């Protein structure tokens, strides 16, 4: 199975900051990488699919990049509603549908 | 509006079974696979299984093989997940999610609100 590893596991930042979260796959997955945001007590929400394609309705401050094994999620200017946990998920070889362990973004 | 509406919270004793429902609306039910994903308290997301609502075929995570059954009722556009032989480690929020697609890319684009299952004696 493909393993997904995110870094960091947690991150403290302030409103207005530029934030980058990294996801690494245990083998090459092309661009088959999705990003989700999960606010406390809520279901996950799709942000980005195919590594860099913004899901409809998601603010443009979110962007994704990468291919192969290394990927990044960037928030260009952090807003109060962005403090949440972020997960990557590979869709190259499924099943299984494997997620990263999550990155918790909280206020500094 | 595309929606997945899940059944309410459950409290079960160890060894019992739980059956969770997920009612889909706002799209053609048979056109999208549905996944089940769970999240234990304070933990990450874990895939449980997937069903093709069109033919009913399923695939389960190896960890849950033999304990989980996912079914669907096309007449009511409802999916069901049954987990048996419950243990305390099964305490989690269980989500159903639609597998959306664009070309060959698949992703979970619509999620239910989740069903909390608590296993306690």
Summarize the topology.
The complex is a heterodimer of chains A (108) and B (121).
Chain A: E1 4-7, E2 10-13, E3 19-25, E4 33-38, E5 45-49, E6 53-54, E7 62-67, E8 70-75, E9 85-90, E10 103-107
Parallel strand pairs in A: 2-10
Antiparallel strand pairs in A: 1-3, 3-8, 4-5, 4-9, 5-6, 7-8, 9-10
Chain B: E1 3-6, E2 10-12, E3 18-25, E4 34-39, E5 46-51, E6 58-60, E7 68-73, E8 78-83, E9 92-102, E10 105-111, E11 115-119
Parallel strand pairs in B: 2-11
Antiparallel strand pairs in B: 1-3, 3-8, 4-5, 4-9, 5-6, 7-8, 9-10, 9-11
Structure characteristics:
heterodimer; A: 108 residues; mainly beta; 4-stranded antiparallel beta sheet; 47% strand; B: 121 residues; 7-stranded mixed beta sheet
What does this structure look like?
The complex is a heterodimer of chains A (108) and B (121). Chain A has 108 residues and is an all-beta fold. Chain A is 0% helix and 47% strand. In chain A, a hairpin with a 6-residue loop joins β4 and β5 (45-49). In chain B, a hairpin with a 2-residue loop joins β9 (92-102) and β10 (105-111). The radius of gyration of chain B is 14 Å and the shape is globular. The interface between A and B is medium-sized, with 26 and 23 residues.
